[in-house]
Design goal:
Elements: E1 2-4, E2 18-20, H1 25-35, E3 39-42, H2 51-60, E4 69-73, H3 79-85, E5 89-92, H4 97-111
Helix pairs in contact: 1-2
Length: 117
């Protein structure tokens, strides 16, 4: 769910980024607060706590409001609402991993963050 370019990548990492995953929205929100990743990739349809609630909490917290959020969803009709709720990019499922990667790189570049090599 979160991605960081500050930590060394584990074997099989994503081109210099460390990827943190969460099985549900509650654990994803907890990891986001604990780890403050450089970016979030968020599905709107997650168990326990949905992605809408995660996005709301991320945007309302001064600890996480600065984190770029890429929503990846099968819900085409949710795009405008997701942008209104504070996402920085919206990708439709199915979405190839390289498209997610390129979107994250673009967001990081726009923020002026160093990009992994």
């Amino acid at each position: 769910m979160g991605i960081s370019n500050r930590a060394p990548p584990p074997a099989g990492g994503l081109d210099g980024w460390t990827v943190f995953t969460a099985a549900d929205g509650r654990s994803g929100l907890d990891k986001t607060i604990e780890l403050t990743p450089d970016a979030l990739v968020l599905d709107l349809a997650m168990p326990i706590v949905d992605g809408w609630t995660v996005l709301k909490h991320v945007r309302e917290s001064s600890l996480t409001a600065h984190i770029p959020v890429v929503v990846v969803s099968a819900l085409s009709e949710a795009r405008d609402d997701a942008f209104a709720a504070g996402c920085d990019a919206y990708l439709m499922k199915p979405c190839a991993p390289d498209v997610v990667y390129l979107q994250l790189r673009a967001l990081m570049r726009l923020r002026g963050d160093p990009l992994p090599v």
